[in-house]
Amino acid sequence: MAPFDLDACIAQLLRKQLLHEALLREICAKTKEVLMRESNVVHVSAPVTVVGDIHGIGGYAPHTNYLFLGDYVDRGLFSVETISLLTCLKLRWPDRVQLIRGNHESRAVTQTYGFYTECVRKYGGSHVWTYFTDMFDFLTLSVVIDDRIFCVHGGLSPSIHSIDQIKVVDRFRGASCYYARDHAQLTHCAEIPHEGPMADLVWSDPDPEKEDFAISPRGAGYTFGSGVVYKFLETNKMSHILRAHQLCMEGYTSLFDEHLSTVWSAPNYCYRCGNSASILEVGPGGSMFFNVFQAAPENERDGPSHQTAQNAGGKLPEYFL
Amino acid sequence: MSFSRRRLSVSSTRSDSPTVFTVVPKADSEEWVSAWKQVLAKELIDSPVVEVDADTSVEDACETLLSKDLQCLAVRMPHERSPQTVPFYGLFDFADVNAFLTLAATRHKISTDELREKLRVQDILKAAREGKVPVYLVSMLIQSPSSPSEYLGIVSDRALLSWLTNYAQRTPNLLKYLSAPLSTLPLPSMYLYMSVIAARASDTVLDAMKLMSDEGVSSVAVVDDETGGLLSAVSVTDIGKVVAPAQSNQILSTPLKQLVARIKEPDGSTDGVDKFPVYSVTPNSTLFYTMQKLLATNAHRVFVTEESPMSSSPTFSSMAPTNLCGIVSVVDGTSQLTPLVPCLLLTHSHHPSPPPPIPSRRAHIRTRLGSVGSFEGFQVRWAERVPVPEG
């Protein structure tokens, strides 16, 4: 295939036009190569803009360094455009854009919660879904900002006490070597298992009422309490845990004496929750500022028929195109 | 699969004392049983007894189950039946809803000969032609005490499991026993490598309903067409929630994949708490972990799946080898305390080779005597499936 123009692709996506299927295949393949070289724990420096769950609401372009905490797809109506854009941004600026894997970056979940259906609807088949879910297998699991702030999609794991343990998880092996395309061949893929450290990192939730770990009602991962958080921060000499994964009506929450924060970036989730959303700016001195915004008025009705998800009201246009 | 692992022999006694396992020191098991014996049923009540009249329509009864978020209703005695000393005719739950809907969808396939033998089915079809099917025809018969004392409430199987889990947490020797991996435990009702009742994602909703009704189970696993991997599960409760209120029959022919998406879609759409598409454990998970997971997720069952490739596995009819290798339900979690399964345990304790599949035992405590499609035939089928002990 002839070399493609990434900037043109990005511009096209910002105009809300889908990329051609063959082009997406190429982009995903190249992005996989970039992701493959990343550790399970990627180290970055502030200033960084941190974005929580997006869930197919809309798209962005980087003016600063960006860290996305996962859950790019499902639920919203623009999952394909969103993940296409993020993938292009990652490929175009691999050191300025970090993409962490969320629990929705998985085959099982996307077949249930909307992304698969959207791919088939917009592209007439499931190839695009395959390209993206294959690429998801290569997304990193966590990021550390300035050696101080540990960022992950879900939360902590009883099997992980130190960050070094995350580094040795084989995220490319995952769980599902059993997938047999036919009786003779086993196809390798790295779907998120439903148990173990990889699952815990993307599925766990903090529980302010508890001290320790407990089995999560979500059916994967754990809930973890204050004792676990403080011990993890102390062991790893960190000051903060940043994560997403849980809806916050005000766009963000802080727990455990502000040692853990949740960032949620999908306003009016499922077009009915009526919640605010936020984007976090981490400054070089360790400052943390949550920019809170609402869904655009058009989004508050039965679901956008306009392509207004990008202009999600409030301060957003200052930061994004 | 290899059955070279030794099946620990199980001894059991009849009704009044629960099953114990030979591997557990007698003093320990006696301690647990005596603690259990001191628990009063009323301490474990976790559901109210909600009554409906016998002639309430099946649709209205189902709606009551849904709107009040109940597991079952108590059906009052029909007026024309006497004696009136017994207040309740039976219990009505989602398994009955499923059986009824399946019958409605497949009645044209029942031959007149078959129909002649199934009196209850005839009654239902007759009532349907007259416009309304009363719930008592579809509900599971119960044996209630002859004196009409007031019913305090219902103890569900979940309440039993919850008690057992709590007790284990403060009883170190029991906790130790329960911390063995599933694959090593001799609980006969948990045939890990048996075929699990499953349907393909491309099978229809009606296919799943028929499976549940015919096999007497409350759920079926849904597996991926190509890979055979476990995708999700559909239960009789889902049928009650999605199929029963449906306006047309079209839903019966939709593929299971779509039904699953419809069922899951509300999960997390108002509180943002998305759930894992299917609840499962591995053969290496401990029984205690499995029990805790059942309680935490509020599920009736979890599936057992292999994480690593299986070189040979039981196949389900013509499907590709699946990673699905077993199922553990709330019933299994409490089976060591409940004296309801001793006859089956006794039967299998001397069976050296893999026992034949008995899928209906998974729903044993809520036995599908009310399963309309096979009501009169149920007893016969059950007897056919129980193997004859050797020696």
UniProtKB/TrEMBL annotation, chain A:
<feature type="region of interest" description="Disordered">
    <location>
        <begin position="299"/>
        <end position="321"/>
    </location>
</feature>
<protein>
    <recommendedName>
        <fullName>Serine/threonine-protein phosphatase</fullName>
        <ecNumber>3.1.3.16</ecNumber>
    </recommendedName>
</protein>
<dbReference type="InterPro" id="IPR029052">
    <property type="entry name" value="Metallo-depent_PP-like"/>
</dbReference>
<dbReference type="InterPro" id="IPR004843">
    <property type="entry name" value="Calcineurin-like_PHP"/>
</dbReference>
<feature type="domain" description="Serine/threonine specific protein phosphatases">
    <location>
        <begin position="100"/>
        <end position="105"/>
    </location>
</feature>
<comment type="similarity">
    <text>Belongs to the PPP phosphatase family.</text>
</comment>
<keyword id="KW-0378">Hydrolase</keyword>
<dbReference type="Pfam" id="PF00149">
    <property type="entry name" value="Metallophos"/>
</dbReference>
<dbReference type="InterPro" id="IPR006186">
    <property type="entry name" value="Ser/Thr-sp_prot-phosphatase"/>
</dbReference>
<keyword id="KW-0464">Manganese</keyword>
<dbReference type="InterPro" id="IPR047129">
    <property type="entry name" value="PPA2-like"/>
</dbReference>
<dbReference type="GO" id="GO:0004722">
    <property type="term" value="F:protein serine/threonine phosphatase activity"/>
</dbReference>
<dbReference type="GO" id="GO:0046872">
    <property type="term" value="F:metal ion binding"/>
</dbReference>
<keyword id="KW-0479">Metal-binding</keyword>
UniProtKB/TrEMBL annotation, chain B:
<feature type="domain" description="CBS">
    <location>
        <begin position="190"/>
        <end position="251"/>
    </location>
</feature>
<dbReference type="GO" id="GO:0004865">
    <property type="term" value="F:protein serine/threonine phosphatase inhibitor activity"/>
</dbReference>
<dbReference type="GO" id="GO:0042149">
    <property type="term" value="P:cellular response to glucose starvation"/>
</dbReference>
<dbReference type="Pfam" id="PF00571">
    <property type="entry name" value="CBS"/>
</dbReference>
<dbReference type="InterPro" id="IPR046342">
    <property type="entry name" value="CBS_dom_sf"/>
</dbReference>
<dbReference type="InterPro" id="IPR000644">
    <property type="entry name" value="CBS_dom"/>
</dbReference>
<keyword id="KW-0677">Repeat</keyword>
<protein>
    <recommendedName>
        <fullName>CBS domain-containing protein</fullName>
    </recommendedName>
</protein>
<dbReference type="InterPro" id="IPR050511">
    <property type="entry name" value="AMPK_gamma/SDS23_families"/>
</dbReference>
<keyword id="KW-0129">CBS domain</keyword>
